[in-house]
Amino acid sequence: MSELLIPGGYEIEAAGERAGDALGNAAFIEKHAAPGRIGLCGGRDWINKLIRKAQSPLTEDGHRSLWSHAFVFSERRIDGQWWVIESDLDLRYKQIRLGVQENRVDRYYDPEAFPNIAILDFDLSPEQVRKIQIAGLDLLSGLSSYSISELVGTLMAMHSRRLRRRSNLLAKEGALYCSALVQHCYHAAGIEFLPGVPGKNIAPHDIDESPLPHRTHRIIRDLGVSTIRELGHKSKHWLSSALDSD
Question: Organism's domain of life (predicted)?
Fold first, then answer.
């Protein structure tokens, strides 16, 4: 990828040699993480698949989005680990965790659970990074909750340009879902991912497709295409190759 910051610029990183090798995601994150940068991931469990599918109105081809979750890199701590600030609906443990939380980024190292991962660099100034970190910590100290209702409101608005530009119909005070949290933090630095679209209507796919100049680094292992559609695409490719060789 060119080192120039261009809208929509991205590079595809090579996946690990083995599908189950967690070092693929770990090495990628270690290479590209920096304070204030944005992380995106696309998971394989049923909740992540549901969120990815629900964003299909935003994709060019109508397939499910590559992304189901967004978070902000905070900093590398004394333990040597990168920590992220996120608003998550975490059902993987006996104690369900909802809302804004701070976690080690190693929870996204497993390529089987998170086949798609990206890090977005909006070329932030040191002052912008500071403002983003402070906004995230303010949310963390206020124990903002995860808003399932707001997420539903965002998904509803995806089907209407008019609703997308209105305040979230199911907005809730003191609550944010993942990509709304990221937009909230970036708003503190003067950045709006989609001008004209309220922060509580921003989806993970919107952040990736922001028209603002940014650099995107990504690993893509799951394109979000159904098996039938994937076979159809492969058949067209094989047919085109056969015709070109004649």
Answer: Bacteria
Higher pLDDT, 44 or 147: 44
The CATH class given to the 9-240 domain equals alpha beta
Quote the CA–CA distance of 232 and 238 in Å, as a whole number.
Answer: 10
Residue 221 near residue 15 (C-beta atoms within 8 A): yes
Instruction: Give the tens place of pLDDT for each residue, 164-185.
Output: 555 554 545 556 788 989 999 9
Q: How many CB atoms lie within 10 A of CB 228?
A: 8
What is the tally of helices (H) and strands (E) in the chain?
Answer: 8, 7
Report the 10 Å Cβ neighbour count for 99: 22
**Neighbouring-strand partners of residue 120:** 38, 216
13: left (phi over 0), alpha (psi -120 to 50) or beta: beta
